């Protein structure tokens, strides 16, 4: 089915100037950028985005990292976007990511892993709504 996923180029990848390479790769893989912005999240905004992970051992480290410097956020659209995006980015831990995946190419560790993607359609809807107003997600191609 035609789906959307919320994509984030995380602080580590933006700092290393990999934003353009990552977006180019995603476009090559057939994703359409329906919305995009570059923002520097506050700690509270990062905590709200990752609310489902509150209480886990890595939560503080994760939110500190995600609010350390700007990120680039996109709503991407494609046939089977969620599964396909996860395939293109590779495993959460870059040590386990397949050859040629975005995390294998650009990520340094499980914490600083270059990109985020939604894990299921309900998460994608919540995550896109967290960052974008309706008018910012282009209703027409
Ligand atoms: P992401 O897809 O953005 O969603 C949750 C994030 O938590 C995940 O990517 C990882 O970057 C991060 N994460 C998961 N496990 C760990 C860990 N053990 N230590 C630090 N960060 C983690």
TrEMBL record:
Outline the extent of the Nucleoside diphosphate kinase-like domain.
2-139
Q: Name one GO molecular function term.
A: nucleoside diphosphate kinase activity
Q: Matching CDD domains, A to Z?
A: NDPk_I
Keyword rRNA-binding attributed: no
**According to the UniProt entry, what is the EC number of this protein?**
2.7.4.6
Active site feature: 116
Q: Where in the cell is it found?
A: Cytoplasm
Q: Which domain of life is it from?
A: Bacteria
Per UniProt, which keywords does this protein have?
Answer: ATP-binding, Cytoplasm, Kinase, Magnesium, Metal-binding, Nucleotide metabolism, Nucleotide-binding, Phosphoprotein, Transferase
Q: How does it assemble?
A: Homotetramer.
| Known role | Major role in the synthesis of nucleoside triphosphates other than ATP. The ATP gamma phosphate is transferred to the NDP beta phosphate via a ping-pong mechanism, using a phosphorylated active-site intermediate.
PANTHER family of this UniProt entry? NUCLEOSIDE DIPHOSPHATE KINASE (PTHR46161), NUCLEOSIDE DIPHOSPHATE KINASE DDB_G0292928-RELATED (PTHR46161:SF3)
What is the protein name given in its UniProt record?
A: Nucleoside diphosphate kinase
Identify the species of origin: Polyangium mundeleinium
Q: What is the lineage of its organism?
A: Bacteria, Pseudomonadati, Myxococcota, Polyangia, Polyangiales
